Amino acid sequence: MRLVIITGMSGAGKSTALKMLEDVGYFCVDNLPVPLIPKVADLWKASGTEISKAALGVDIRSGQTFHELHKVLDELDGAKIQYEILYLESEDDVLIKRYKETRRFHPLSGSQGRIEDGIREERKKLQFLKERADYIIDTSHMLTRELKTELNKIFVQNKEYKNLYISVMSFGFKYGIPADADLVFDVRFLPNPYYIDQLRPKTGNDPEVRDYVMSSKTAVTFLEKLTDMVEFLIPNYIQEGKTQLVIAVGCTGGKHRSVTLANALYQALSKHENYGIRIEHRDIGKDAVTKAK
C-alpha cells in the first residue's frame, strides 16, 4: 500500500497533482477531514482491499481540525503505517497573481482581507508539514505539463528525487536582468551572430547560429567550466534545502548567444534525472516585435 499525502500552499497546484495521480491509478480523496485520516488508512491497509495506491489532499481548508494533523501523523507513525508527504510550494508573487487571475479569495484572507496576509498566515500554519515532507516541489516557474512530468518521475517511475527544480533561462541585458535569478552569467564576450547578415534574423535555436557561437574555443571552454561549477553547486544547494534554482544566461538582446549557451547548459544538466529541469528563452522574440512596431 502506497499512501501519499498531498499538501502545500493554496494555489501551488495540489488539485493538478491529485488529478494526475488519479489518472495513473491512485485512489484520490481531496480535503478529507483530518481526524478521519488514520481510520481511512487502516481500512486501506486491511488485507483484501483492492486499493494499492492512494493519495489524500490535505490543506488549510480543513479549518479548525487542521491543527490536529501533527498528532495524526504521529499516530500513523506509531501504527507503522507508511506514508509520503508531497509539499507543493510557490513564491508569494506567483500565488498572488494566480489568485487574481482566477478571482478567488484566499481561504485565510476572507472576502475582505488581503491575499498577501492570507498567504503569510498559511505559510506559518504549514511550516511543520514542510519540515516533514518527503518531496518539496516549487511550482513557481512550472507549466502544468512540467509539474506532471516531475510527479510521474516520483510516483510512477519511482526515481530518486532531490527536491530541486532548475530553470535555465536566456535573457537580454537590454531588457533587464531577471528579478528571480539566483545565478547570472554574461556571455556578451562571445562572437556576436548579430553582425552576420544571414544570421541576424535567426536565433540560438537555429543550427547555423548555434554552430557559429560554439565554433569559438572560448565558448566551448566557458560551457565546460560553467557546467562543472553548476554541477558542483547543485548538491550543495540540495543539502541547504533549496527547492528552486534559476540560472540566467544573458547577452545583449537575448536572441543569439545566450539562447545557444542556455540550451547547451540545459542539455548538459538534463542527464541528471534526480532533479527537475526546464529551459526558458525570455527575450528571444522581443527584437522582432520591437522592429515590427
From TrEMBL:
Matching Gene3D superfamilies: P-loop containing nucleotide triphosphate hydrolases
Residues engaged in binding ATP: 8-15
UniProt-listed Pfam families: PapZ_C (PF22740), RapZ-like_N (PF03668)
Molecular-function GO terms, alphabetical: ATP binding; GTP binding
UniProt domain RapZ C-terminal: residue ranges: 165-284
Keyword check for GTP-binding: yes
Record's keyword annotation contains Nucleotide-binding: yes
Keywords: ATP-binding, GTP-binding, Nucleotide-binding
Positions that bind GTP: 59-62
Domain RapZ-like N-terminal span(s) in chain numbering: 1-158
Protein name: RNase adapter RapZ
Lineage: Bacteria, Bacillati, Bacillota, Clostridia, Eubacteriales
Gene encoding the protein: rapZ
